[in-house]
């Protein structure tokens, strides 16, 4: 059973600070990693993808991947109240076909004005 | 606008009733998925379709059936609804997965209550 673990939170961060969200996964063969943002009552929205060890930056967002430690993180710089949402980590293994992503249960992030 | 369209957005069923959730995408994606999302449980895969004409079970398929009608449409059917099927259902689509796949595009969801 593939597992993706996230701290459910809530994680409370002051406006303007860096929010750090973490995720661990059990399948060592995993190849693709995604971060989704989900506002209350809305559908998940893809914000970052990462496939290689190291950092990937996109605006205020940085995804970090360490396959040896089976760990992926998301940093949000200059946090804004509009970043308050649940962040879902998702993992795709190395198999072919389309057997779906495995999602973590999400971390609830609150940005305090 | 391009994307994934789900209908209906809300539905209340009585135990034992049947219904079909509809999903259509216009992004020419090969793969389509049905997930359910429950508090404390996260998103769980019900069924998926790698391509037109194929469907496979996911993590929680019991009580559901699916049809991949054509490349655009993937429907989810509850034959005899149970209160345990009260959930938010999301349809998603993606390009055929390969190294560097782009992840999913989700529909807006269907909020289903079974009483």
Structural commentary:
The complex is a heterodimer of chains A (113) and B (115). Chain A has 113 residues and is mainly β. Chain A is built from no helices and 11 strands. Chain A has strands at 4-5, 11-14, 19-25, 32-38, 45-50, 54-58, 61-66, 71-76, 85-92, 102-103, 107-112. In chain A, the strands form 2 sheets. In chain A, strands 2, 4, 5, 9, 10 and 11 form a 6-stranded mixed sheet that branches. A 5-stranded antiparallel sheet of chain A has the order 1-3-8-7-6, with no helix packed on it. With 115 residues, chain B is mainly β. Chain B has strands spanning 4-7, 10-13, 19-25, 31-38, 42-49, 56-57, 64-68, 74-78, 87-94, 105-106, 110-114. In chain B, strands 2, 4, 5, 6, 9, 10 and 11 form a 7-stranded mixed sheet that branches. In chain B, strands 1-3-8-7 form a 4-stranded antiparallel sheet, with no helix packed on it. In chain B, a hairpin with a 6-residue loop joins strand 5 (42-49) and strand 6 (56-57). The N and C termini of chain B lie far apart (35 Å). The relative contact order of chain B is 0.33.
Q: Report the span from N to C terminus of chain B.
A: 35 Å
Overall mean pLDDT of chain B: 92
The main β sheet of chain A shows up as: 6 strands, mixed
Silhouette of chain B: globular
Q: How many extended strands of chain A?
A: 11
> What is the assembly state of the chains in this entry?
heterodimer
The fraction of residues assigned to DSSP E strands of chain B is over 45%
Please tell me how large the radius of gyration of chain A is. Answer: 14 Å
Counted beta strands of chain B: 11
List segments of chain B where confidence is low: pLDDT < 50 over at least 5 consecutive residues. Answer: none
Radius of gyration of chain B: 13 Å
Helical proportion of chain A, percent range: under 10%
Low-confidence stretches of chain A: none
Largest interface: A-B, 24 and 31 residues
Q: Helix coverage percent of residues of chain B?
A: under 10%
Structural class of chain B: mainly beta
Instruction: Supply the helix-strand structural class of chain A.
Output: mainly beta
Number of helices of chain A: 0
């Amino acid at each position: 059973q593939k597992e993706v673990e996230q701290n459910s939170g809530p994680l409370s961060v002051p406006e303007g600070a860096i929010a750090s969200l973490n995720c661990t996964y059990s399948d060592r063969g995993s190849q693709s990693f995604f971060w989704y943002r989900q506002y209350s009552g809305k559908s998940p929205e893809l914000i970052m993808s990462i496939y290689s060890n190291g950092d990937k930056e996109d605006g205020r967002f940085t995804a970090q991947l360490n396959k040896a430690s089976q760990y992926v993180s998301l940093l949000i710089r200059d946090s804004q109240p509009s970043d308050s949402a649940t962040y879902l980590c998702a993992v795709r293994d190395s198999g072919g076909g389309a057997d779906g992503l495995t999602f973590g249960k999400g971390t609830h992030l609150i940005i305090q004005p | 606008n391009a994307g994934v369209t789900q209908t209906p957005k809300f539905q209340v069923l009585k135990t034992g009733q049947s219904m079909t959730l509809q999903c259509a995408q216009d992004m020419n994606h090969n793969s389509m998925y049905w997930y359910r999302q429950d508090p404390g449980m996260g998103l769980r895969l019900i069924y998926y379709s790698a391509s037109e004409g194929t469907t496979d079970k996911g993590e929680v398929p019991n009580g559901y059936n699916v049809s991949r009608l054509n490349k655009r449409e993937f429907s989810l059917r509850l034959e005899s609804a149970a209160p345990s099927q009260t959930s938010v259902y999301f349809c998603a689509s993606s390009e055929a997965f390969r190294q560097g796949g782009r992840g999913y595009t989700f529909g807006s969801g269907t909020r289903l209550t079974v009483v």
